[in-house]
Amino acid sequence: LRVTIIFVVLTVALEFFIGFGLALLLNRKIRGQRIFRFIFTVPLFACPVAVSYMGLILFSEENGIINTVLMNYLDLSRIPWLSSPSLAIFTCVLLNVWQWVSFTFLVLTAGLQSLPEEPQEAALVDGATRWQNFKYIIVPMLKPVMLTTFLFKLVYSLKVFDIPFNLTEGGPGLSSEVYSIFVFRTGLKYLDVGYASALSYLFLIVVLLICSNLISRVREIYTLEGE
Question: Is 56 helix (H, G, I), strand (E, B) or coil?
Fold first, then answer.
């Protein structure tokens, strides 16, 4: 549970803020806007298993690309990305963020483009700064989309399995063993199916409680906007 909470908090926070920042950056008219949008969305279409093996090539302690660059070009010592208990879970977080920040970027970009321009233009005419326009106009109007994006990312991060399992198999030791890997090992490796089933139902109840609270919050916002 501790490892899962660390993974969820870091991935959801990083993916949300990086994706939101990219959406704000590319929501304005700049040269090569379509090219940048295409580049930022490419990782979303990669298979998580393939991304995991790409991570093995990048983060391998002995022959990995990142450590090779650090040692040969920056004259730094190698970093035990996958063999250190304190770094393994953060390596999984980095790889997961690289792939799924595209989803947050796409959804929030669509949300920004759907916002009406009249309130923003009126606020600027009345003397509001760009920060005030962002804080008091854009964010309140975009809040339903932000909460929906947060909900999707939270659910995916809670049930993540493929990247941590293929990258570290929950190791070294149990340092990167998220909840889904623990359930998998309990039921399919140690054949304690009853205990694994109980763990799965408990996890389902927790996710349902979290989702129901967030969904009710989104409905309240839409109701207030409708009124």
Answer: helix
Which residues are CB-neighbours of 29 under 8 A, at least 6 positions away?
Answer: none
List the one residue out of 108, 91, 106 whose CA is nearest residue 44: 106
d(C-alpha 85, C-alpha 3), whole Å? 11
Q: Tokens representing 49?
A: 């298993």
- What's the half-sphere exposure (Cβ side, CA atoms, 13 Å) at 60? 10
The C-alpha atoms of residue 223 and residue 25 are separated, in whole angstroms, by 30
Question: What is the gyration radius of the CA atoms in the chain, in angstroms?
Answer: 21
> Is 137 within 8 Å of 120 (Cβ atoms)?
yes
Nearest to 49 by CA among 169, 163, 168, 161: 163
Is this model's pTM higher than 0.70 or not? Answer: yes
* Predicted pLDDT at 225: 60
